[in-house]
Specification:
single chain; 289 residues; alpha/beta; Protocatechuate 4,5-dioxygenase, Chain B; 8-stranded mixed β-sheet; 10 strands; globular
């Protein structure tokens, strides 16, 4: 049997202020910690021999089924339609991995999770994928697959099963080494219009920050049973980005509520434009039997 390797899994930030912080002005250098966290994750991936990065991207919204953007290559110049004053005219070019994308869809469909892989497509990448790839993949070292993580009418448990399908596709059918990232925030309430500057480095409300910080403590303790139990309410009450389907997919990949490993925080929790952010590595352990 072909045996691939899931080498690294992580929950990562993609805040557009990372790109903004590259340029002269009042925010120059303000996201160095987040950028350095991405560069550290890249170093780990290279040391582990990773050939492909799969991103659960909460900036790709879908209304039905699970979708995999596995075009053969990606390239262009990106401006965010959401925050065009933060990310504008950002060039990118990355190779894709159609073969792995189709394997993921095949396994998910066999498991009863309706999924589609798109390799013959004009789908472009969203900034939940483009921002981390800017700092991890500037030399096109990795192939890239992006999976829709903003799933408006989906069930978090089913997204967990989709994550499990990704793991099975990698380990049972792919000849290679893969890293998987959930690209999204913790709490995700933006600053009210007109008040954005005062929240540049803050979380919107003390309640949101306190819940986020408790969540990070659960992660550091490896208490995934408690976190999975609170995930639906957490996603709802704290405005989880993409309803936190990226996080559900990541946990499904790792064992869901029976996952037990503590995370390694690479970039400590921080506030950005009202939202809660982190870079954290989720150790890959054998799936519970």
């Amino acid at each position: 049997m072909t045996m691939g390797t899931l080498a690294l899994a992580a929950k990562i930030t993609h805040v557009p202020s990372m790109y903004l912080s590259e340029f002269p002005g009042p925010n120059f250098g303000c996201r160095d910690a987040a950028i350095n966290g991405h560069k550290e994750i890249d170093r780990r991936c290279r040391a582990l021999g990773v050939d492909t990065i799969v991103v659960f991207d909460v900036h790709w919204q879908v209304n039905s089924e699970y979708h995999i953007n596995c075009g053969p290559k990606f390239g262009g110049t990106y401006t965010s339609n959401e925050l065009p004053h933060f990310i504008k005219n950002m060039p990118y070019a990355y190779p894709g991995n159609p073969a792995l994308g189709h394997l993921i869809a095949d396994v998910a469909n066999e498991m009863g999770v309706k999924s589609r892989a798109h390799s013959d497509t004009t789908l472009e990448l969203e900034y939940g994928t483009l921002v981390p790839m800017r700092y991890m993949n500037p030399d096109q070292h990795y192939k890239v697959i992006s999976i829709s993580g903003w799933c408006d009418w989906h069930d978090l448990t089913e997204s967990g099963r989709f994550g499990l399908a990704v793991r099975r596709a990698i380990e049972e059918r792919y000849e290679g080494t893969v890293a998987v990232f959930a690209s999204g925030s913790l709490s995700h309430h933006f600053a009210d219009n007109g008040r954005a500057p005062e929240f540049m480095h803050k979380v919107y409300d003390p309640f949101l920050e306190q819940v986020d910080r408790r969540v990070v403590e659960l992660w550091k303790a490896g208490d995934w049973a408690t976190f999975v139990g609170m995930l639906p309410m957490y996603a709802e009450k704290c405005w989880g980005e993409g309803d936190m389907h990226d996080t559900a997919m990541l946990l499904g990949l790792l064992g869901w509520d029976r996952y037990a490993a503590p995370v390694e925080v690479v970039t400590p929790y921080f506030g950005s434009s009202g939202t809660g952010q982190i870079n954290a590595i989720f150790p890959v352990t054998p799936l519970p039997v």
